Amino acid sequence: RCRPDAAPVAEARAIVAAACRHIEQAETVPTTEELAAACGWSVAHFHRTFRAETGLTPHDYAAAHRDGRLRAALAGGATVTAALYEAGFGSSSRFYAHADRALGMQPSAYRKGGAGESLHFAVGQCALGAILVASSGRGVCAILMGDAPDALLRDLQDRFPKATLIGGDAEYEQRVAQVVAFVEAPGTGLDLPLDIRGTAFQRRVWTALRAIPPGQVSTFRDVARAIGAPQ
């Protein structure tokens, strides 16, 4: 058990990494109170430390992992009903209220490879490597990360073979570049496992892009205000 409110940095990061693994493996998303109790910290200290290391709240990290499972299940051919329960949504009403935020399109369209959708995409670089962001008219539908931009584009094509992919949109590329540059925090979570860092970074970019209306060129202050981050 850890020492409340006095853990060294390395121990704090180990606790946060363990909490992320707990979230990923749990059938039911643990509450912040349960996660804090598991390491003997106060809820406030655990919440503050988790956010400092990942840039997310525990609830946001859990939502990111759940949404990733949903996208994987639909892309793998699961029915919408099977996918929503496999991802951990407790009811269809909760799922459909959240679907646009998680998928950027109707679940049936996502399952069918983006049938009928036009997707704008932009490719860039971040501290974790190459990044590709794609959006439909409803919102963000993919944030892919890896070593090679060409491989990310092939991945996007494989995920949405029936969608029309639109690159070279200067306004969209600028918007994505601004958000990625803002979301990158050089000192955040550098000693966390790479997959945890990737999940957290993707979620922060996803949240920021959803918060900024299309066509609106934003300053860093605008982005910070939109996602409730310190300016």
Automatic annotation (TrEMBL):
Q: Does the keyword rRNA-binding apply?
A: no
Record bears the keyword Transcription regulation: yes
What does the record list as GO biological process?
A: DNA repair
Q: Which GO terms describe its molecular function?
A: DNA-binding transcription factor activity; methylated-DNA-[protein]-cysteine S-methyltransferase activity; sequence-specific DNA binding
What residue stretches are annotated with the HTH araC/xylS-type domain? 13-113
Q: Which UniProt keywords apply?
A: DNA damage, Transcription, Transcription regulation
PANTHER family registered for this protein in UniProt: BIFUNCTIONAL TRANSCRIPTIONAL ACTIVATOR_DNA REPAIR ENZYME ADA, METHYLATED-DNA--PROTEIN-CYSTEINE METHYLTRANSFERASE
**Stated name of the protein:** Helix-turn-helix domain-containing protein
Protein source organism? Nguyenibacter vanlangensis
